[in-house]
Amino acid sequence: MPELPDIFVLANSMNAALQTKVITDAQVNQPKCLNVSTIKFKKYIKRRRIESIRQRGKWILGQLDTNWILAFNLGMGGEIRLHNRDERPDAERERVVLILDTGEQVWIHHWWFGHVHLLQSKDLANHKQLSKLGLEPLDDTFTVEKFSEMLRGKRGRIKSYLLDQSFIAGIGNVYVQDTLWYARLHPNRTANTLTHEEIKALHSAIQHVLKQGIRFGGGPGEQDIWGNPGMYSKHLQVGYKTGKACPRCKSIIEELRVGSTTSYICPKCQL
Ligand SMILES: [Zn+2]
Q1: Is residue 253 part of a domain?
Q2: What's the gap in Å between 85 CA and the centre of ligand 1?
Q3: Domain containing 16 — which CATH number?
Q4: 249 C-alpha vs ligand 1 centroid, how far in Å?
């Protein structure tokens, strides 16, 4: 499932590839991934120019030259790809296809839980999922002070808060692993027991790991709109490295269950 860096990279590549292009038509092969009828969907996106595309949490928001926004969520195993005029999409696989004035096509595929929503800018605050998203961890508003305030009185595991999309948006079970390792925190630590120094270290680890993910083009199995694969997996420190040596202290990395997720930790470094 894509996380913030993967979505950031994809949104950026979509912005580069699609900005100023006009949507001339759409093919909807899976109407249930829309939040409106196919007729309404086509009516409001046809002849609309794509102004800009950006990431928000695990969503991609495409601003059209009206008040309308196309919001994409890849769910699990999803991809958004640019194709040439002469290519023919497999209607069974591609849920929605956007046709552009250049003749190019945007194929949107997901096998589960994916969405292509159409909403007005003013309705972002009421959208069922988008309105519940927490702070963007790479935003200026996410400061150490703010983070410290957010963690106050929180009695659950630190890992659960990091994965909670309404707390901080965009972190999932791939990027959380090294984040906790850099911050030297055990995933089971109770959030409100973190010292100010630990909160500072965690704040900086969150931003470092997400930026690394972006720098290396996203995580394992993720691709941009042209199909360039993410290379972050080559830079993982402890994530998915059970049995390997911790890059810091050489202890053997362990795997453990934390809630419903798997964690990879250095038993010496992470307390
Ligand atoms: Zn270690």
Answers
A1: yes
A2: 52
A3: 3.20.190.10
A4: 4
Both 38 and 105 in a single domain?
Answer: yes
Nearest to 129 by CA among 138, 116, 140, 111: 116
- Give the pLDDT of residue 113: 83
- What is the 203 CA–ligand 1 centroid distance (Å)? 19
Instruction: Report CA(121)–ligand 1 centroid distance (Å).
Output: 46
**Residues in contact with 229: Cβ distance below 8 Å, sequence separation at least 6, in sequence order:** 217, 218, 221, 222, 223
Please report the pLDDT score of residue 111 as a whole number. Answer: 82
Q: What's the gap in Å between 77 CA and the centre of ligand 1?
A: 32
pLDDT at 188: 96
Which string of DSSP letters, residue by residue, matches 19-33?
TT-EEEEEEES-GGG
Q: Could you say which residues of the chain have pLDDT below 50?
A: none
Compute the distance from residue 84 Cα to the ligand 1 centre, in Å.
48
Q: What is the C-alpha to C-alpha distance for residues 180 and 208, in angstroms, rounded to an integer?
A: 11
Residues having C-beta closer than 5 Å to ion ligand 1? 246, 248-249, 251, 266, 268-269
Statement to judge: residues 8 and 86 lie in one domain: yes
Residue 51 confidence (pLDDT): 98
HSE, side-chain direction, 13 A CA sphere, residue 190:
6
pLDDT score at 258: 85
pLDDT of residue 75: 87
User: For the chain, what is the domain count?
Assistant: 2
Q: How many A from CA of 265 to the centre of ligand 1?
A: 8
Same domain, 126 and 38: yes
**Cα(181) to centroid(ligand 1), Å:** 8
Domain shared by 111 and 166, yes or no: no
270 part of a folded domain: no
Q: What integer pLDDT is reported at residue 1 of this predicted model? A: 85
Q: Which residue range forms the structural domain that includes residue 46?
A: 4-132
Domain boundary among 132, 155, 172: 132
